[in-house]
Amino acid sequence: MTTTRHFKAIAIFATIALALAPLSACGSSSSSSSSQSSDSKIRVASSITQWGSLVNKIGGDDVASTSIVSSTGTSSHEYEPTTTDISGLTGADIAVVNGLGYDAWATDALENDTDTTVINVADLVGAKDTDNPHLWFSKDARDKTAEAVRDALEKLDPANKDTYEKNYETWNTAESDLQKNLDMLRPEVKGHTYVATEDLAYYLLNDLGMVDITPEGFKNARASESEPSAQDISEMKDIVSSKKVDVLVVNEQESDDITKELTDAATSANVSQFSLTESMPDEYGNLLDWINTLANSLMLIMPASGSSSSSSSDPSSSSASSTSSSTDASSSDSSSSSN
Question: Is the pTM value of this prediction over 0.70?
Answer without folding.
Answer: yes
